[in-house]
Amino acid sequence: MLYKNEKPQGYDDATFIKVPIKSIVCFSLTHLAFIDKLGALNSIKGLSGCDYVSNKMVINKIKNNEIKEIGSSQLINYELLIDLKPDLIMTFGIDETATNQLNKFKTLGLNVVLNSEYMENHPLGKAEWIKFVAAFYDKDSLAEIIYNNIESDYNKLIALTKNSETKPSVFVGMPWNGAWYLAGGKSFQAQLFNDAGANYLWSDNKETSSFIVDKEVIIEKALNADYWINLNAFNSVDEVTNVDSKLKAFKSVKTGNMYNNNLKVNTANGNDYWESGVINPHVVLADLIKIFHPNLIEHEFVYYKRLE
């Protein structure tokens, strides 16, 4: 239960958090993207995955020891957490490991909340979690304005593709040990492709997350696809085709229509698409429209690049 001044009485089993919070520890880089948008980066005292951060201000704070690495969910530095004494720990996960961690945090007298933006199946649904984060900073009104602007920009972009005469076909991913991980037909990735005016070849699939398909099935179905998107961490056409010579036969390879979402990657392969992209779905969508319908938009890529 959040409160501003006097702590409410008569709620013996409730957890009370006084707002606005002054300090926080984050277990996901998407959390810092929300906090950055709210102008509250100075509140971050600890972070899981410091090596993978893309945000330049956060990187500087890590270098200056203002933000400390608190470890991964498998190996948390509990002593450091106690020393930091954050007003709030923001984490994620609903499995048994996460439950054990939550109980440990509570045993140590630390306030903890779960941010579940990663479970959303629509890009705007993910971005709307800024309202949840904002509540702890008492910045509800600001979050409302930020989200409304994002939603408006996103919907304006959708309108660009509504009357497009063409809907190019697209598939995703790369083979791994004979299998191929695809974005589910009901996932946020599939939603982005649809909103960008493309035909995702597995749009009829009912999965909300990734699913596995045999490599040979992909080769047969995606052979003549117009575009190949989101190729893991690959940076060139040669890197891709060296994995399997059969991939050279794809139409998207022959036409050069291969685009990956790793334009902004740091030395540890931390990808900003998975960090700030969560709060910038309108920018991701603009990138995709630039790929599928370059004549519809004037835009410089932010997250995507064409593989050469």
Describe the protein.
By secondary structure, this protein is an alpha/beta fold. The protein folds into 2 domains: 2-115, 3-Layer(aba) Sandwich (Rossmann fold), CATH 3.40.50.1980; 165-306, Nitrogenase molybdenum iron protein domain (Rossmann fold). It contains 12 helices and 17 strands. The strands form 5 sheets. It has a 5-stranded parallel sheet, sandwiched between helices. A 5-stranded mixed sheet has the order 13-10-15-16-17. Strands 11-12-14 form a 3-stranded antiparallel sheet. β4, α2 and β5 (68-69) form a beta-alpha-beta unit. The mean pLDDT is 95.
A few lines on this structure:
This protein has 12 helices and 17 strands.
Which keywords apply here?
12 helices; 2 domains; Rossmann fold; single chain; 16% strand; 5-stranded mixed β-sheet; 5-stranded parallel β-sheet; 308 residues; alpha/beta
CATH architecture of the largest domain: 3-Layer(aba) Sandwich
Order of neighbouring strands in the sheet with most strands: 5-4-3-8-9
The helix tally amounts to 12
Question: What's the average pLDDT?
Answer: 95
CATH class of the largest domain: Alpha Beta
- Please give the radius of gyration in angstroms: 21 Å
What's the topology here?
Blueprint: E1 2-3, E2 17-18, E3 24-26, H1 29-37, E4 44-47, H2 56-63, E5 68-69, E6 71-72, E7 75-76, H3 78-84, E8 88-91, H4 96-107, E9 112-114, H5 123-127, H6 130-135, H7 140-162, E10 169-172, E11 175-176, E12 179-183, H8 188-195, E13 199-200, E14 210-214, H9 215-222, E15 227-229, H10 237-241, H11 251-255, E16 258-260, H12 281-292, E17 305-306
Parallel strand pairs: 1-2, 3-4, 3-8, 4-5, 8-9, 10-13, 10-15, 15-16
Antiparallel strand pairs: 6-7, 11-12, 12-14, 16-17
Helix pairs in contact: 7-12
